[in-house]
Write a structure and sequence with these properties.
The structure holds two protein chains of two kinds. Chain A is an alpha+beta fold. Chain A has four helices and nine strands. Chain A is globular. In chain B, β10 and β11 form a beta hairpin. The chains are: A alpha+beta, B alpha/beta.
Chain lengths: 198, 283
Amino acid sequence: MKKVLLLCLLCAQLTVSGQSINLARSHRRWFMPDHAKLQFAGGTGFLSGGPGYISRNRTLETDFLFGYLPEEFGGDALITITGKTTYSPWSISLPNSYYIKPFSLGMYLSYTFGPQFDWKWPKYYPKGYYWWATSVRPGLYVGGKVGRDVMPRTRKRQLELYYELGTYDLLLISYVQNTGFLKPGDILNLAIGFKFGF
Amino acid sequence: MYNIILNSSLTNNFALNRVTLLLLLFFLLSLASCDSLFLYNPNQVTLLNGQSNLNNKNISLLASNPPQDTLRFILMGDTQRWYDESEDFVKSANSQKEISFVLHAGDISDFGLAQELKWVDRIMSRLNVPYMTVIGNHDIIANGPDAYKKMFGPLDYSFTYGNYKFIFINTNSREYAFDGTVPNVPWLRAQLADNPDGKEMIVVGHVPPYDNDFDKKLEPEFAGLLRDNPNVNMSLYGHQHSFTDGEYYKDGVRYVVTTSMGARGYLLIKLWKGGQEVKRIEF
């Protein structure tokens, strides 16, 4: 049930951003994604990927990622689904139809599947015994990307390479309370991804 | 003519791509040396080289020092989310004289993350003496048990040093829904029975048997095993974030509980033939 709810929430989010696309490019059905991403690391799997949507002014992207972490890289095989939103306010054009989006700010919410992870703590715990959910992790990141407009046939498409430097709630609270021992590098992690515009 | 322009532009792009790629590679390599630069999942269990089976390694390290007639060690616990305080603990512990080892009474982590165990090991490895751990309830959350097993070893284990046998047992019954398997009472019985040299035995756990997080159905049997064994006079715990010390069941067994790192305290324990001394230290 909790998984269904999460999916519904994500779908609702996608629908909202999808409608703005409909106005922008009426030739495409509103639910068709604008791009796909493939991402390495970033807390959402060893590799994660999936469809995404971009706002009419091309600054806000919303993505839905399905991630997998094999046991040989993570000590445990884990499947994660993630909804993320990235805001990249500036785009700088370069020669040869290259461009740079120097700054991005984003957040994500991921859900990791497994019997050892909970959305709601089991009944044998008194209320408030633990305060966080182990299956759902919110995270924050900053980043940037470099892209290029290409025209393989008739339509312009974007190819982008992006990076994100981020952390998640549990590490952030650990850092805030232990600025002597923990350094920003202890809680930050790097994600690298590729975006293919449709 | 058109072809030539196209070719030169392609060459330019190629050169630019190569430079970008090289820069990217350099950037990645320069960062790859940092611990945990890439996070695949918060619940991943990826450890550093040599960060495995630490309890056993530290027991071997301890065994290389000849035991004295009087044994002095530190009981501390509940590092949880108190890294700065734990660093101060290490400084304080390193100033204590003639300490043989440090016992961590559990709740090494706060969220059951392997990352937290790694941070605490980074702090505790600066101790002048080896340290051994027992698993706490916070270490049993999410992938915590897997991380603990890989990093420290079995959840129940024991070692002997000099005239003493230390028995470490997982007493976090609530995390197992009080299903009667934790603590593993038959294992404890076997451990207490396996004492051919008649050593003094000290049982170490995270949750004390009289705590609400300990399985009430197993409490009488657990406490009874300690009471009925003439070689058990003391049992050590954490979990309660405050010091307590006394014969809880008035049965000849002294139950000693240490406080948390957040409360900035630990215990200095001295054992000798026929005697024991527990001193509270604040740092």
